[in-house]
C-alpha cells in the first residue's frame, strides 16, 4: 500500500453473478484478502470489497460486488448492476446445472447492464477434477459464441483467481482508457 493508493486514477465496479454455492464469495475473499473459507456463511452481508492494483502503470481501484444470497432467478436488483463495467459470471465445474443457468444469468445481465460490459465466464472449483461435470471445451465454445472471456479457477487452491480478475480489469481498462 503506502503511497500506492493516494492517487487512484480509475474506479471500476465489477459484479459477481451466478448460482448459489458456485464459489463467488470465496473467489472474492481470495482476490481481495487472499483468504478462503469452507464456511460459506462467512461473508454474508458484505456488499462489496475493494482492491487497488496497477494496470499499465495506472492505479486502478476494483470495487467488486458480491450477492448476499439473492441468487434466485431475477432476485438480483438493478441497483446491483448499476454502473458495473465488468461481470464475473461464475459456475461450478462439478455442477452441470450451474453451467446450464449461465444462459439465464447472461440474459439478465444484458437486460440490466451497459452494452459494453466486460464479461468473464468462470468455471470455479477446478481442484475437483474427479467430479467434473462441465468440459473445458463446452465452456470455451459457449464463451466464444457469446463473445465473452473464459477461465477456470480454484478459489481453494488459488489457481487463476488473480488472473481472472486481472483479465476482466485489464480489458475494462483497455476499453475505457
Ligand atoms: P457462493 O454462494 O457462490 O458465494 O459460494 P461460496 O463462495 O459461499 O462457496 C460455496 C461453497 O463452495 C463453500 O463451501 C466454499 O468453501 C466452496 N468453494 C468455493 N470455491 C471453491 C473451490 O475453488 N474449490 C472447492 N473445492 N470448493 C470451493
Ligand atoms: Mg456468496
UniProtKB/TrEMBL annotation:
<keyword id="KW-0547">Nucleotide-binding</keyword>
<comment type="similarity">
    <text>Belongs to the small GTPase superfamily. Rab family.</text>
</comment>
<keyword id="KW-0342">GTP-binding</keyword>
<dbReference type="GO" id="GO:0005794">
    <property type="term" value="C:Golgi apparatus"/>
</dbReference>
<keyword id="KW-0472">Membrane</keyword>
<keyword id="KW-0636">Prenylation</keyword>
<dbReference type="GO" id="GO:0005768">
    <property type="term" value="C:endosome"/>
</dbReference>
<protein>
    <submittedName>
        <fullName>Ras-related protein RABA4d</fullName>
    </submittedName>
</protein>
<dbReference type="GO" id="GO:0005525">
    <property type="term" value="F:GTP binding"/>
</dbReference>
<keyword id="KW-0449">Lipoprotein</keyword>
<dbReference type="GO" id="GO:0003924">
    <property type="term" value="F:GTPase activity"/>
</dbReference>
Amino acid at each position: 500500500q503506502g503511497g500506492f493508493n493516494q492517487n487512484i486514477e480509475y474506479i471500476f465496479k465489477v459484479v459477481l453473478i451466478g448460482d448459489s454455492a458456485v464459489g463467488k464469495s470465496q473467489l472474492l475473499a481470495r482476490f481481495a484478502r487472499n483468504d478462503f473459507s469452507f464456511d460459506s456463511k462467512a461473508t454474508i452481508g458484505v456488499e462489496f470489497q475493494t482492491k487497488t492494483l496497477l494496470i499499465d502503470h495506472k492505479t486502478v481501484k476494483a470495487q467488486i460486488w458480491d450477492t448476499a444470497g439473492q441468487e434466485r432467478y431475477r432476485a438480483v436488483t438493478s441497483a446491483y448492476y448499476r454502473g458495473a463495467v465488468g461481470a464475473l459470471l461464475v459456475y461450478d465445474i462439478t455442477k452441470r446445472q450451474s453451467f446450464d443457468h449461465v444462459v439465464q444469468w447472461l440474459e439478465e445481465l444484458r437486460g440490466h447492464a451497459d452494452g459494453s460490459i466486460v464479461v468473464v465466464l468462470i468455471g470455479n472449483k477446478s481442484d475437483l477434477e474427479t467430479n467434473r461435470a462441465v468440459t473445458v471445451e463446452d465452456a470455451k465454445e459457449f464463451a466464444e459464441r457469446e463473445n465473452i472471456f473464459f477461465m477456470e479457477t480454484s478459489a481453494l487452491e488459488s489457481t487463476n483467481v488473480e488472473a481472472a480478475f486481472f483479465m476482466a480489469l485489464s480489458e475494462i481498462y483497455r476499453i475505457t482508457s
